[in-house]
């Protein structure tokens, strides 16, 4: 058994949002076995004094697309899976080195990537997958360009990795069952229009209430849950009433809909970073004017949606939703949130709240006895300014399941 004790740490308590001083934390193998204020007796294992450094739980990103190695989904659909996997390995390792020890994929990643990480072939965060996001014909996530049929040939975009096109109750039931069969941890449904597809309006509704209900019913039967892409109040309301667990994006949220979400206990997963990045890079990427216009609409409403959700008592999670070479802006999500949330609230979203959302309370996103030893050591006090995360040199150590991935600490006797 390997043992490591951190001593004299300033520790972020993700349950309360407080910074506790003079803390000692002991890890044995993959598990945190002791958390005390004060010192722990020497047990003969390694010991590190964290004087002036902050100890935090590993971060969780609840909305990523690790296989979105380009920002054009049709182009992505025509790439070979082996090439995508090679690029994805780089994306995953970079996420882990930024301090994200767990990520929830919102469409595209498959169980092979999960196994590759678990077996040590790929260095990356703990990966939870939706498989293919379920969309309707012409819906968000349908990768086919206009005038292409639903044929089975690759030139029609039918090799798309993100979306699974299904119409009608029997088809959507089958679609959910296929994702579960292929190892999905949760189900993603496109309940409304999106910005990365030009012809589906942001306030458009996707899937009937019967279809949404069937999708949730199948997920429930498999003992999992549904995350729903939706922007408009009506699309959000229909998804909430159908029984989804989280609303992804939700930028056009209004007060009445936020109250409905709070009443049903549905989480909001804002993704501010992707709109900020696309506003800067979308034109260079060749995005159509209609797509850029939709991006501008939601970008301007994202912060207000968080304010509305907070006032209604909605649990606010954290996701980034970045694509292509924009993945390196992942920590911008933390910083953008500071305009409407305190640093402690943002970090709680990225740890405690996200752990609740993915069903891992007490195991992930927390420094507590019995929790997984996913830990970060940072210079100074990130609760004063989350911009510290944008500079990786401030991240002195990253541990996933007790194993160091980043180690820039200078060893000294405890």
From TrEMBL:
It comes from the Bacteria. InterPro entries: Amidohydro-rel, Metal-dep_hydrolase_composite, Metal_Hydrolase, Metallo-dep_Hydrolase, OTAase-like. Residues 54-405 form the Amidohydrolase-related domain. This is Amidohydrolase family protein. It comes from Dyella kyungheensis. The lineage of its organism: Bacteria, Pseudomonadati, Pseudomonadota, Gammaproteobacteria, Lysobacterales.
């Amino acid at each position: 058994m390997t043992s490591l004790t951190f001593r004299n740490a300033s520790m972020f308590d993700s349950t309360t949002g407080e910074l506790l001083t003079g803390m000692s934390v002991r890890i044995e193998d993959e598990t945190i076995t002791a958390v005390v204020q004060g010192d722990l007796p020497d047990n003969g294992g390694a010991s590190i004094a964290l004087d002036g450094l902050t100890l935090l739980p590993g971060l969780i990103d609840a909305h990523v697309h690790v296989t979105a190695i380009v920002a054009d989904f049709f182009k992505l659909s025509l790439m070979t899976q082996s090439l995508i996997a090679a690029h994805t390995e780089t994306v995953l390792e970079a996420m882990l080195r930024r301090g994200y020890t767990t990520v929830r994929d919102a469409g595209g990643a498959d169980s092979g990537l999960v196994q590759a990480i678990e077996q040590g072939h790929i260095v990356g965060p703990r990966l939870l997958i939706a498989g293919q996001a379920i969309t309707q014909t012409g819906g968000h996530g349908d990768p086919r360009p206009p005038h292409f049929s639903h044929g089975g040939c690759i030139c029609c975009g039918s090799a798309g990795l993100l979306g699974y096109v299904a119409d009608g109750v029997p088809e959507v039931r089958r679609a959910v069952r296929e994702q579960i069969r292929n190892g999905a941890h949760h189900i993603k449904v496109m309940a409304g229009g999106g910005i990365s597809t030009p012809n589906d309006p942001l306030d458009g509704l996707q899937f009937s209430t019967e279809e949404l209900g069937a999708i949730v019913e199948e997920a429930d039967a498999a003992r999992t849950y549904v995350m729903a892409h939706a922007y408009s109040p009506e699309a959000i309301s229909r998804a909430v009433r159908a029984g989804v667990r989280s609303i992804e994006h939700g930028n056009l949220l209004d007060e009445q809909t936020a109250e409905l979400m709070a009443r049903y206990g549905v989480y909001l997963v804002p993704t501010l970073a992707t709109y900020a990045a696309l506003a800067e890079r979308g034109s260079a990427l060749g995005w159509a004017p209609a797509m850029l216009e939709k991006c501008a609409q939601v970008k301007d409403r994202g912060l207000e949606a968080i304010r509305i959700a907070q006032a209604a008592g909605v649990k606010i999670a954290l996701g980034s939703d970045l694509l292509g070479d924009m993945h390196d802006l992942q920590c911008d999500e933390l910083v953008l949130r500071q305009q409407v949330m305190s640093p402690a609230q943002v970090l709680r979203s990225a740890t405690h709240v996200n752990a609740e959302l993915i069903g891992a309370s007490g195991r992930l996103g927390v420094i507590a006895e019995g929790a997984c030893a996913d830990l970060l050591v940072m210079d100074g006090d990130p609760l004063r300014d989350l911009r510290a995360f944008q500079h990786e040199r401030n991240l002195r150590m990253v541990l996933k399941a007790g194993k160091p991935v980043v180690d820039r600490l200078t060893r000294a006797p405890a």
